[in-house]
Write a structure and sequence with these properties.
Length: 247
């Protein structure tokens, strides 16, 4: 079963796909699957392109209800990126999925993981978070504000006639996601931190710093030989499915 919906999030309209297996006994749990922030030329249109396929696979293998949310400015969703807007987007998605009255978990890549951690720190409806290739130190990840803003512009995560925030304001807004402070507030709820050992964009030390900030109340999985892009890595999929089974 697949549903496709459009959700209003402020001035943005979000693309939401919901999958449930028709061959497995349903598990009364919901997983929200989120993409990261594209920074390469033109990637804003395609950054979430693999998520529906992954969501359908996870639903079929786990029995969970799996939703893939596309954030403002990415893919078919309208609007423009900011950390604050993406946090509002995820809140909108969780509000919609809460109608199912199932416990909700999030699995997210890159900056999507930071958004999920931030919301979970303040929203008890989220009973677990799995992050993959997520930064513990967003100041280092963003880098120089002018360059960061230019990268996002080139990626095309800007729609609907709304400009990105000014460089310093844009980075300051992202830093408010506060990965280390957020993850510290989530235990005893479930946490999984997955990372590629050869990640050149977000060094694997970031995963260990997130693990330490959670006072080791998390599952830490370092995937040997893997880089930053984990969505198509079968070891990542197996790791996530195992976490769902234990949830």
């Amino acid at each position: 079963m697949q549903l496709h919906e459009r959700l209003a999030s402020g001035e943005s309209e979000l693309d939401l796909h919901v999958f449930q297996s028709e061959s497995r006994t349903p598990v009364e749990r919901t997983l929200v699957l989120l993409h990261g922030l594209p920074r390469a030329l033109g990637m804003g249109r395609t950054a979430a392109g693999m998520l529906p396929e992954l969501g359908e696979h996870l639903a079929h293998e786990s029995g969970w209800l799996v939703a893939t949310g596309t954030m403002s400015g990415v893919g078919a969703s309208t609007g423009t990126f900011s950390g604050t807007q993406w946090l509002a987007d995820l809140t909108t998605i969780v509000d919609r999925l809460s109608e199912e009255e199932h416990p909700i978990a999030c699995a997210a890549f890159g900056l999507g993981g930071n958004v999920a951690l931030r919301l979970a720190a303040h929203d008890e409806r989220i009973r677990g978070v799995a992050t993959f290739a997520t930064s513990a130190h967003l100041d280092a990840w963003c880098g120089e504000p002018e360059k960061f803003r230019a990268q996002i512009n080139r990626a095309g995560v800007v729609q609907g006639g709304h400009q990105l925030l000014d460089p310093d304001e844009l980075v300051h807004d992202v830093l408010q996601l506060d990965p280390l402070g957020s993850i510290a507030q989530i235990p005893p709820r479930r946490l999984l931190i997955g990372h590629g050992a050869e990640d050149l964009e977000v060094p694997v030390a970031h995963a260990r710093d997130l693990y330490a900030a959670a006072e080791e109340h998390a599952e830490l999985r370092i995937i040997q030989g893997a880089g930053h892009t984990l969505r198509a890595d079968p070891r990542m999929v197996a790791t996530l499915l195992g976490w769902l089974d234990r949830h």
